[in-house]
Design goal:
This protein is α+β, with helices and mostly antiparallel strands. It is built from four helices and five strands; from the N terminus they run ββαβααββα.
């Protein structure tokens, strides 16, 4: 039998439900990224905003913050749960230094 070329649609979470990823959703993500880039460097970003900016899954950014691979501010909530916040300028500097060091 030949290869099947039909692929499953990529799914995205929209309002708590998974729906096929559409061009309009892609445009929404890009407009969110543009809005984040226009913020001043002293702006405080949420985990989701940083994930959108870096085009990473929020769990990946959370793990990076937990292991101190990305500059983050930890907000303790209770005994085990933590929330992270990020200074846009610090993340931008970290990203720039990561790009420069990977070229060497």
């Amino acid at each position: 039998m030949g290869k099947q070329t039909d692929r499953q649609p990529t799914l995205a979470r929209v309002n708590g439900k998974f729906e096929p990823f559409s061009d309009s959703l892609s445009n929404t993500v890009e407009s969110e990224r543009s809005a984040i880039l226009e913020l001043p460097n002293d702006a405080v970003l949420t985990l989701r905003e940083v994930a959108t900016w870096l085009k990473l899954h929020p769990k990946t950014v959370s793990e990076m913050a937990r292991t101190q691979r990305i500059p983050a501010i930890t907000l303790p909530l209770g005994t085990k749960r933590k929330q992270f916040r990020f200074m846009k300028g610090a993340v931008g500097n970290w990203l720039s230094s990561a790009v420069v060091s990977s070229r060497r």
